[in-house]
Design a protein that fits this description.
Low-confidence stretches: none
Number of strands: 5
CATH architecture of the largest domain: 3-Layer(aba) Sandwich
Shape: globular
Largest sheet: 5 strands, parallel
Radius of gyration: 18 Å
Structural class: alpha/beta
Number of domains: 2
CATH class of the largest domain: Alpha Beta
Mean pLDDT: 87
Strand content: 5-15%
Strand order of the largest sheet: 3-2-1-4-5
Length: 243
């Protein structure tokens, strides 16, 4: 009986929270044409995993994304997981806007893992949900960020949310999730802004050049975190929640 009452209370709190964030101005702008063009782009899978060799992805990427990070990596090596090469490509990438030195960059994995999930945003905020039946811890719940906030070095007040994902151009659930996480940081006293839509390569380079990074789930975010560590930046995460 007590457990049931607690569950009802938690449900009411999250419902109230969702209503508040829908009124928030923490909104990401989108470019649907660019989203459609880059919808099947897979940076980490094509460079760090074996998927590259399943079919002739080298030719596919060289035609569809000729100047991309993936194409540059494929043209340079047939080796998977060459982190030094990836760092070199990132360092040479021309990016108009780079993260500020004392800015905490929060990467959120959105896209199909939210919009095509069988779970509601409310359910994903409440607890970790798999995208696939037995795997796929891409979308982090509120509790993950609540436990990370005390780990952020004192004196850092700016949060930049960089949210990205693929295989989806329906952004409705994305927006609710992004606002929820942004609102949580605002309530903790941070100044929060959301990065507008960029192509995946630009998001990736932005993450890799951050001095402080809070990663999400998935290979894209994990790869960025590895590069940040290698460049002597700080990756802020709660290992208890990393799976």
């Amino acid at each position: 009986m007590i457990i049931l009452k607690i569950k009802i209370m938690i449900k009411k709190i999250i419902t109230k929270f969702i209503k508040k964030i829908k009124k928030s101005n923490l909104k990401k702008s989108y470019d649907l044409d660019l989203q459609k063009k880059w919808i099947m782009y897979r940076l980490a899978d094509m460079t760090m995993k074996k998927q590259r060799f399943d079919i002739d992805f080298d030719e596919i990427y060289s035609k569809k994304y000729p100047d991309s990070i993936v194409s540059k990596y494929m043209n340079a090596t047939r080796e998977q997981g060459n982190l030094d090469l990836m760092m070199k490509i990132v360092d040479e990438y021309e990016l108009n806007n780079n993260p500020e030195k004392h800015e905490v960059v929060v990467n959120l994995r959105v896209g199909e893992v939210i919009n095509q999930s069988r779970y509601t945003v409310k359910e994903m905020l409440k607890e970790q949900k798999n995208f696939f039946r037995k795997a796929g811890h891409y979308v982090k719940p509120l509790s993950y960020y609540k436990e990370i906030i005390p780990l952020i070095p004192k004196g850092l007040k700016k949060i930049k949310i960089v949210a990205g994902g693929g295989q989806s151009i329906d952004n409705h659930k994305d927006e609710i999730y992004i606002k929820a996480i942004g609102k949580l940081f605002e309530k903790s006293g941070f100044i929060v802004s959301v990065q507008d839509y960029q192509i995946p390569d630009e998001d990736f380079v932005y993450l890799c050049r951050s001095s402080y990074l809070i990663p999400s789930g998935g290979g894209f975010s994990n790869l960025a975190a590895r590069i940040v560590r290698k460049k002597k930046g700080q990756v802020i995460t709660n290992l208890k929640n990393e799976k």
